[in-house]
């Protein structure tokens, strides 16, 4: 039993469950799911659908953080891939054809894959600090997106493109399937091959890994490339949701939400051990928190403050030092009680 | 000890004991320091020198014993306490602020103020005065990082003088200085000594120790060996005090020196003129199948530097390496691993184990790294390898799912040995594999090395304990002052011969 409580996912899951309980108590309809035309609707379904872009970005961020790095450019890369894809669709004569769609998506994510590889080059080959290296594209990326769209917010009409974020498949939102496929792929690649453990090894002790013969440069480089690729797919989903390439609003502050999701999931910013399952829970926690804020009627102006408070509480609970302090306090209290009982 | 007790010591440390998890870092050490002396603190890695200094400067709190400064009992819980008591430290890697000016560094925290604001003109005037007391005249408004390490060290010393320190700790101050810079530093040190400052001097350079010190205290394995006047302590005696004569708990491991090694063929690995400027003068090293080559020398003698160049952990700028007769490029550890050369670093925690991974993951890491990430060592294959090597080396506790950081030092060392043996190397380089581990694990590792060599593996074995080197090796390479100074046949050498070779005066070696 104690082993279950010591599992590192206990706290993240407890936080998510608590959040769902608060929501259900304040509005019982939160958990209700209605079926219309064979499709599921409800707050929970919305959360599954809306969390997809953050999920993709946070998965990439998990790998990058495991290498002791950070990727601040993901939001800007979302803007880039959306801009590339929508510009291609906009310029095409047949915006509804699958070929156009395929080319647009492939072009969008290829560009962000290259940008991700650029980040990886700066960090792993040139040895630039990750926060600085990725800051370059965080700032330049939106400029590049604006350049691609010619300074406008490109809007298009393309039924299949719209389907990706708004359509349904077998009763569930299509975007949710995208999340699931990404989670499964990343988890399989990391855990079925040795990539996961080698990434952790480099994150825990880079010098010892080098002397043991681990190709740390390639591993770090690859992590940023994957992060760029996933941010590209997230950008496609985002632009498909609003059917527009908005270089300024796309993925705004999503890097912060992603870092937060990773940390909530129990992966340390110091690098090393990472948990894909933890990140998934972290993403759902953040998305649930966002919808909580909306329907608790928190005014939009103060919602960041509300979000920050919740985050502070969750992070404090996860802090080893706070927990040690709390258990010490608990030990003194209970030993005093025992002493009283003995008397 | 016949010490002059007439002078009251400025620092008297009595029975100092410090425990770290699983290790007794200091065991009842006495140390006294008189005003106006230069006192050298000597010992190999893990002897307890830096732990003793950290106890004195308030970095570590002591578990037993007492510290008196100027006759008053003190307990330091922070470095600020120690500084307030007049004890300052200048570390090997200068701990100043390179992006501030020289004057700001000297006066940091003690800036003269006028009306609540820092009087910058006063800062630089006072800094210049403190520096000129040490015979240094530089522009105090220049950036600290624009000056040489030697000058930065003098800045650090004058910073200590601002707080009117009575005790100055110099931790390896000369390791990156050239000869004339050392002279300048020693001039300042002598001057401070004559003004009554007590100086603790830590260095690995014997010549310098004898040049500057009045007394020498030797530590070994956390215990005090003795304190003597420098003039009364011959060089050879100092070396054998530092390296020690361990009572032989290892009689059952037969002396390997008498085993015959066939050196007629091609060496497994042969290094010719391998060197790197400022690190190691070009040296040769041949290792044959089934041979244990010991490297003897003090810390900083070049013993670690040589094997790191051989493994590609550091870049050599001269020389070449041949594996079984054909010249190969060894610029990175991966190259070395491709030629089946394995290397276990002397710094187990920082350069060996991956602390947060399990024992099993640490053991297969070597094979996994060689195979690449696509072909995972997993399932039954992993289980077989891990259980085979854990049993062969006797890793305790025998739990492959434990995090390796929770194992004792000796078992961590066994895990590292297992990692490399699993890759089936033809040469294994072991740098201080037995340092800081318990006697049982030490005997296990020594026995394993002997067995492996008997099975045909080539081994390079480095240890501060000469007994161990003499027992295990068939041939001993002797190093001093970043140079290889010779080779001894272990067959007819004793520990005394090796000590004599290490301690020989520098001029003899040149002649």
Automatic annotation (TrEMBL), chain A:
Keywords attached to this entry: Cell membrane, Membrane, Transmembrane, Transmembrane helix
Top-level lineage group: Bacteria
Cell compartment(s), UniProt: Cell membrane
Pfam families tied to this protein: BPD_transp_2
GO molecular function: transmembrane transporter activity
Topology within the bilayer: Multi-pass membrane protein
Transmembrane segments: 40-65, 72-89, 101-128, 135-156, 168-189, 219-238, 258-286, 293-317
A GO cellular component annotation in the UniProt record: plasma membrane
Protein name (database record): Sugar ABC transporter permease
Organism, scientific name: Pseudolysinimonas yzui
Automatic annotation (TrEMBL), chain B:
Pfam families, sorted: ABC_tran
Matches recorded under InterPro entries: AAA+_ATPase (IPR003593), ABC_carbohydrate_import_ATPase (IPR050107), ABC_transporter-like_ATP-bd (IPR003439), ABC_transporter-like_CS (IPR017871), P-loop_NTPase (IPR027417)
UniProt keyword ATP-binding, yes or no: yes
Sequence ranges assigned to domain ABC transporter in this UniProt record: 11-246, 248-506
SMART domains reported for this sequence: AAA
Keywords: ATP-binding, Cell membrane, Membrane, Nucleotide-binding, Repeat, Translocase, Transport
Gene Ontology CC terms, in alphabetical order: plasma membrane
CDD domains: ABC_Carb_Monos_I, ABC_Carb_Monos_II
Name by which UniProt lists this protein: Sugar ABC transporter ATP-binding protein
Organism classification: Bacteria, Bacillati, Actinomycetota, Actinomycetes, Micrococcales
């Amino acid at each position: 039993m104690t082993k279950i409580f010591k599992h590192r996912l206990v706290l993240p899951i407890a936080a998510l469950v608590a959040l769902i309980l608060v929501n259900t108590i304040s509005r019982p309809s939160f958990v209700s799911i209605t079926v219309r035309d064979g499709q599921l609707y409800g707050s929970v379904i919305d959360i599954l659908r809306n969390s997809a872009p953050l999920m993709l970005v946070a998965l990439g961020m998990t790998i990058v953080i495991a290498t002791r790095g950070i990727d601040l450019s993901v939001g800007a890369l979302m803007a880039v891939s959306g801009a590339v894809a929508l510009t291609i669709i906009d310029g095409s004569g047949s915006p509804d054809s699958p070929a156009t769609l395929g080319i647009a998506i492939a072009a969008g994510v290829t560009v962000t894959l290259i940008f991700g590889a650029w980040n990886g080059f700066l960090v792993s080959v040139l040895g630039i600090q990750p926060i600085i290296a990725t800051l370059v594209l965080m700032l330049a990326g939106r400029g590049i997106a604006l350049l691609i769209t010619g300074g406008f917010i490109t809007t298009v009409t393309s039924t299949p493109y719209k389907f990706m974020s708004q359509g349904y498949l077998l009763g569930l939102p299509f975007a949710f399937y995208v999340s699931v496929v990404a989670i499964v792929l990343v988890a399989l690649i990391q855990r079925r091959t040795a990539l996961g453990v080698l990434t952790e090894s480099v994150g825990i002790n880079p010098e010892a890994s080098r002397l043991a013969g681990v190709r740390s440069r390639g591993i770090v480089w690859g992590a940023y490339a994957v992060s760029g690729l996933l941010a590209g797919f997230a950008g496609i989903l985002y632009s498909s949701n609003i059917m527009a390439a908005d270089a300024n609003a796309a993925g705004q502050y999503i890097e912060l939400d992603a870092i937060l999701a990773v940390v909530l999931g129990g992966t340390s910013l110091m690098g090393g051990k990472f948990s894909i399952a933890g990140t998934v829970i972290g993403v759902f926690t953040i998305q649930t928190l966002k919808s909580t804020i909306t329907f608790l009627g928190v005014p939009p102006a103060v919602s960041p403050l509300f979000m920050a408070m919740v985050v502070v509480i969750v992070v404090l609970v996860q802090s080893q030092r706070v927990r040690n302090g709390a258990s010490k306090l608990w030990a003194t209290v209970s030993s005093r009680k025992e002493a009283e009982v003995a008397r | 000890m016949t010490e002059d007790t007439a002078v009251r010591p400025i620092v008297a440390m009595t029975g100092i004991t410090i425990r770290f998890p699983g290790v007794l870092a200091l065991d009842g050490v006495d140390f006294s320091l008189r005003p106006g002396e230069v006192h050298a603190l000597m010992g190999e890695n893990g002897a307890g020198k830096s732990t003793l200094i950290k106890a004195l400067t308030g970095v570590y709190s002591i578990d037993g014993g007492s510290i008196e400064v100027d006759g008053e009992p003190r307990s330091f819980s922070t470095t600020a306490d120690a500084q307030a008591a007049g004890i300052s430290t200048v570390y090997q890697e200068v701990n100043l602020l390179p992006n501030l000016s020289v004057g700001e560094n000297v006066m940091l925290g003690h800036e003269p103020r006028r009306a609540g604001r820092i009087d910058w003109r006063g800062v630089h005037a006072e800094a210049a005065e403190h520096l000129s007391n040490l015979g240094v005249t530089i522009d105090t408004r220049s950036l600290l990082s624009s000056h040489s390490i030697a000058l930065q060290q003098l800045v650090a010393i004058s910073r200590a003088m601002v707080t009117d320190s009575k005790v100055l700790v110099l931790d390896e101050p000369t390791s990156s200085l050239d000869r004339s810079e050392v002279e300048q530093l020693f001039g300042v040190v002598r001057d401070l000594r004559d003004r009554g400052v007590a100086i603790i001097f830590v260095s690995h350079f014997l010549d310098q120790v004898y040049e500057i010190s009045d007394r020498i205290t030797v530590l070994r394995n956390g215990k005090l060996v003795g304190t003597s006047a420098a003039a009364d302590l011959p060089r050879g005696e100092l070396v054998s005090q530092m390296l020690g004569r361990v009572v032989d708990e290892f009689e059952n491991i037969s002396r390997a020196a008498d085993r015959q090694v066939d050196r007629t063929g091609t060496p497994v690995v042969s290094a010719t003129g391998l060197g790197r400027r400022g690190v190691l003068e070009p040296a040769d090293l041949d290792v044959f199948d089934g041979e244990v080559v010991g490297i003897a020398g003090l810390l900083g003698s070049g013993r670690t530097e040589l094997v790191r160049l051989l493994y590609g952990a550091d870049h050599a700028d001269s020389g070449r390496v041949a594996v079984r007769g054909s010249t190969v490029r060894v610029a990175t550890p991966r190259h070395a691993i491709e030629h089946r050369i394995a290397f276990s670093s002397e710094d187990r925690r920082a350069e060996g184990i991956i602390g947060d991974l399990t024992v099993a993951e640490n053991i297969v890491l070597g094979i996994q790294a060689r195979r690449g990430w696509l072909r995972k060592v997993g399932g039954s294959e992993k289980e077989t390898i891990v259980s085979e090597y854990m049993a062969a080396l006797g890793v305790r506790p025998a739990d492959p799912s434990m995090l390796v950081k929770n194992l004792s030092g000796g078992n961590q060392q066994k895990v590292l040995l297992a990692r490399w043996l699993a890759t089936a190397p033809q040469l294994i380089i072991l740098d201080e594999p037995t340092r800081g581990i318990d006697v049982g694990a030490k005997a296990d590792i020594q026995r394993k090395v002997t067995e492996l060599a008997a099975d045909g593996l080539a081994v390079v074995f480095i240890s501060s304990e000469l007994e161990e080197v003499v027992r295990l090796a068939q041939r001993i390479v002797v190093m001093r002052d970043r140079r290889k100074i010779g080779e001894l046949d272990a067959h007819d050498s004793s520990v005394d011969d090796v000590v004599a070779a290490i301690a020989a005066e520098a001029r003899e070696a040149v002649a």
